[in-house]
């Protein structure tokens, strides 16, 4: 019995051991299956996450990552709080169910989403221009860079246009200007954080509306004011950007017409002689449009003229950065394009060691006669004139509607003498510089019959530059500029097919939009 019991006990132990081994095998196999399922789920989750991020990439415009901050915990905390707020608005729990809070996401995801949620125009990385900056600044009149359009030049032109948009926004956010405002630098939301505003600029009209106009519309009294914020001077202070560009750049950005008195000055289109240069021969003197010169030269009762403000500030910056390689970029739209030419002309002779000056103008009208154009060229000012073929503002004032016809007639020796006589007439205007021609009818997004305001709109210009490849090529399919702002400002001129597609791009656009008084035809018109 004892032996049997012992055998039974041993058999029981053997059975228990065998059953335990079998159970362990089943458990191990089950754990293996669970682990495989977990890995599979993680793979699916990862693939799903990647898909959602890819969709966000397509849906939202990209932006250059913010520059490295030299503060420590303060900046990191601020960045995390901003990213957390953005994530909460986006309701990411529907996209990543396993992530219930922003803190559970990695810093890489936070940085990526912060970049994706920016409403700035999508940009490709900026290339180093150090060895060729003079070429892009116009030393060869942009030969070989326009048709077909060089990618670096495209990027620079669009960026300069965005500087002008900042000048518009600054004015419309606070249109009323007192005489005391001139001593302060206005807050300007610059599109490029590597630049800092050093001087606010004001233009004053020599005209004055009757006082009863203010009595009729007291809330719009700012429209009859003679002095208004028209732009600013900014200088690049970021060492990495200075190194990339090959020099320290100074920007002068000037907006287009926005007040009643500025409109009144626009129609004063008689040519008047401008000071400076050799004007000993009256028939060969440089002349410019009367109204433009008035806005440029007229001082306010307690504020300097636009001319004096520009000259004094540039001289101050030249002295401040003496010994460095400098350049001056003057950029303007519509009326601002005209004032940019007047500023560049005067700057070119205001100091013996003046840095290279380039003008990038958008939708600019003619400013002066042929003698004025020749003087600007002789003084070394380089002008890139971006003109939309459908923009009538670029063909006024003056007698010759077509620049091509004007040049053909001048090349004809039989009529050259007659044209010399016409050059001295009161409306003998001539354009200045190198033309970069775009066409709103080429855009697949704009209606072919887009109205005058759209064809002259600054955002429409930037849209066309971004899509331009060459004069004999269609609109580029991989254009990267967001349609959101174009739809916001020119929705009636955008094809219906693209309005719905662009609707998703306007997440925070309403917060950035600036109200424009309804009594004004357009903030972009001259």
Describe what you observe in this structure.
With 526 residues, the protein is an alpha/beta fold. The longest helix has 58 residues, at 2-59. It starts with a helix and ends in a 14-residue tail after the last helix. The model is unreliable at 1-21, 58-76, 89-106, 108-124 and 505-526 (pLDDT under 50). The strands form two sheets. It has a seven-stranded mixed β-sheet, with helices on both faces. It has a two-stranded antiparallel sheet with strand order 4-5. The protein is 44% helix and 11% strand. It contains 19 helices and nine strands. It has two domains: 1-58; 133-512, Alpha/Beta hydrolase fold, catalytic domain (Rossmann fold, 3-Layer(aba) Sandwich), CATH 3.40.50. Helix 8 (260-266) crosses helix 9 (290-297). The protein has helices at 2-59, 73-90, 107-116, 133-136, 151-173, 211-216, 239-245, 260-266, 290-297, 306-320, 335-347, 370-378, 403-411, 413-422, 452-456, 458-467, 484-490, 496-503, 509-512; strands at residues 195-204, 227-236, 248-254, 271-273, 287-289, 326-333, 357-362, 382-388, 434-438. Pfam families: Lipase_3.
